[in-house]
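INFO  loader      accepted 1 record
INFO  loader      residues=437
INFO  predictor   begin
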Amino acid sequence: MEKVNVRVRKLRRRKSGRVVISKYYHLFCSVKGHGQGQFSLNAKELQPAEKLKNDFIREKERELSGIIAPRVLRDAASRLLTDHLTEFLAYMKGLNRSASHISHVGTRVRNLIADCGWHYLSVVTAKSFELWRQNKSGKLSIKTRNEYRASMFSMLAWLEENEELAANPFKRVKKTDGRGLETLKRRAATQAEMEGLLSKAGDYAVAYLAAVTTGLRRGDLSKQEWGDLHLDAAQPFALVRAATTKTRTPAKVYLGRQLVAELKKLRAPGMPTNRLVLAGRMPTMNQMREHLSAAGVAFKDDQGRRLDFHALRGTYDTNLAIAGVSDAVRMKLMRHKSPRLALETYTDSEKVPVAASLAKLPEFGFGANGTEHTGKDTGILVQGGQSVSMPVTTASVLKDEKNPVFIGKSHGLSPFVTFGHEKSNGGEGGIRTPGTV
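INFO  predictor   done
INFO  writer      dumping tokens
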């Protein structure tokens, strides 16, 4: 065991040319390999200061020998868990986390404290959480239960990092595997469904059109100001400010020709640049249900998949996939860091023409009639791939024949970006995506 070096003395400092001695004795300590420190003993006399020094040495030696835990751990263990939560939420606020995220974390941890009876750190165990998770399996979704785990894990990790917790017990708690068991599933809209929705949406149509042609989230769209839009540029675009995005990163989003035309109709001369673009035009969930019902579109299909506002973002990504846009460009347009999100989470695989891709494979002269076929013949034998899709040039919803809602047609769902095997960098009426994106 390392030797504990301790001494006590009063602090001395010079003030206005005179040496000033502090009222109280201070303790100075150092242990090889454990650093050094000092603190006030709040003792004016040497005798009580020496007693406090001896008590400190005995305590430190017991800590170093492993008989007792360090004082910082013991102090943390004696405090209520709700007090630690209050400090953790203040720490998150200092990191500039969003108010909604801080609120959700606080609510989940408080619920766990109440349900599991965790009043102090010493009673927080992995087993007690796992029992709670099992009891909640029929009441909370897998995603929600994993969010509870993540919230508690983050607070315990913060305590461990600050040396107020010896080890995070939640390191042994694994996430629940929810693949294939999602309670909330979404689907991409078809061209006919989108045209029907836009035709019945009235003033809200521009919000749906913006979501399905840019992939912006509801929160991003609702906070767009007129100063963020550059509709008269050679390639119109919108700047998404970092303060308004989910990922806190700015983005430059190119706008399609039809959306630009509709936005220009809303822009009045002398419009303040800080006014919200879609003020009074962002539909609520209930309003979107009404619009879908009026258009004869089911909110949920036979498989229980929803067509809500966020599903329009998935529709955008699905249409990019159908259009043959490369994975790298799709990630850029969707503003994803992980290719898994663009390729799996937001893509409706049922609407991607996988079967039609077989038409592009060569045949090997083993036909029933003994004739040989080539890869060139295959494109004729099987139709329905992207190379033979017909462009859609009408849109009954917004009465603008030159500004189609969707460009291209493939299995009832057409892409917004006319990227294909024959044509690139946007087509007539499509979203223009520069090659540098």
